[in-house]
Design goal:
- By secondary structure, this protein is α/β, with parallel strands linked by helices.
- The protein has two domains: about 45 residues; about 160 residues, 2-Layer Sandwich (Nucleotidyltransferase, domain 5), CATH 3.30.420.10.
- It is about 40% helix and about 15% strand.
- It is built from nine helices and five strands.
- A five-stranded mixed beta sheet has the order 3-2-1-4-5, with helices on both faces.
- β2 and β3 form a beta hairpin.
- α4 packs parallel to α6.
- The radius of gyration is 19 Å and the shape is globular.
Length: about 240
């Protein structure tokens, strides 16, 4: 069993704590409880990577740009009802790299991502176009974001309209209104980026894509999804549809 725990710890890049480790071991047929998992991980010196504490600023006024149609409904029952997006930045030896993503809130899957050396509306419009292409949607989607100028720009708003997507925005200064996407960025940085030193933007892009697709979407278990990955959850929904 210790060999299995070591293998899972390595395979999952040291991102699994005792609960996800327990789920993996049960899937492999081991008869074990969470306390024994905790003791074995401690004995083996295995510690999961943890995000640093993050303080969210309190908003002083309600958004007047677009209504918050999501209203913290973070667990929709169907795919392609609610998407959320945001931008984060990664330090490289060539300067900042900006990453934009869109998640399906039902499955927590990162359905599209795009990179740029500038955090502009071209980046957010491009990642939206990729999401539409991948999901082949025909309207009936609500897209939620913050009030950044990349999302309030004419080009991005026009792209929403062209694809029949309704816009929704967080209240000013309230990151908790977009908590799922914020949580993804925290996982990305605490489980991967913070342990790297990227000499070039190309190195960062390659490593981040490796985190998103083969790991986060395909393998990483989510407690909210019943201890399965986003892709596995989508397959489960498709089988029961």
């Amino acid at each position: 069993m210790e060999a299995a725990i070591k293998h899972i710890h390595h395979e999952m890049d040291a991102t699994y704590g005792k609960r996800r480790m327990l789920s993996e071991l049960l899937d492999l047929g081991f008869n074990i409880g969470i306390e024994k998992v905790r003791r074995l991980m401690a004995r083996l010196g295995l510690v999961a990577k943890r995000p640093k504490p993050h303080r969210y600023p309190a908003g002083k006024r309600a958004s007047i740009i677009s209504p918050n149609k999501l209203n913290r409904q973070f667990n929709p029952e169907k795919l392609n009802n609610y998407w959320s997006g945001d931008i984060t930045y990664i330090r490289t030896g060539q300067g900042w790299l900006y990453l934009a993503v869109i998640l399906d809130l039902c499955s927590r899957r990162v359905i599209s991502w795009a990179f740029s050396d500038k955090p502009n509306s071209e980046l957010t419009t491009r990642v939206l176009r990729l999401a539409v292409q991948k999901r082949q949607i025909k309207g009936n989607v609500i897209f939620h974001s913050d009030q950044g100028c990349q999302y309030t720009s004419d080009s991005f708003q026009e792209s929403l309209k062209e694809n029949g997507i309704e816009g929704s925005m967080s209240r000013a200064g309230n990151c908790l209104d977009n908590a799922v996407t914020e949580r993804f960025f925290r996982s990305l940085k605490s489980e991967r980026v913070n342990y790297r030193r990227y000499g070039t933007r190309h190195q960062a892009i390659s490593d981040i894509i490796d985190y998103i697709e083969p790991f986060y979407n395909q393998k990483r278990k989510h407690l909210r999804l019943g201890n399965i990955s986003p892709v596995q959850y989508e397959h489960k929904l498709q089988k029961t549809a």
